Amino acid sequence: MDQEILVEDFQRVFRELSKQRGPVLLLMLLAPEISSERDWNVVVSAKGFDAMDRASAIRDVVRLLKRTLSDENWRRVLRVTVLKTDDEFVRALTRTHQTKGSVVNLYSANISGIDIPKAIILQSKVAA
Description:
The chain is α+β, with helices and mostly antiparallel strands. It is 38% helix and 31% strand. It contains four helices and five strands. Strands 3-2-1-5-4 form a five-stranded mixed beta sheet, sandwiched between helices.
């Protein structure tokens, strides 16, 4: 599948997350390895999830993904991770790789001790 279609699908997810859970600081698709083109881990950080426990936040995101993504893109999601907006990884990534309205592709990076073989960053902004 074309990456452009994947990105468009996840931009719809971003709009829904923004409506339902307030400011989204981070929405990222993280590949498990550099050669991966089909499988993605979804990483989300939004203000509305800060007061929720991790399991509830993940269930909420999974429901949103199932409702919003095409069947083909939903099958590409391996894992969903929801991080608090004050998480060290979120703060480091949003400081160094702000999207400013465009998609950022990231390759072979280490952010706050986390290795990132390949990622598509759809939203990354510093908390206000």
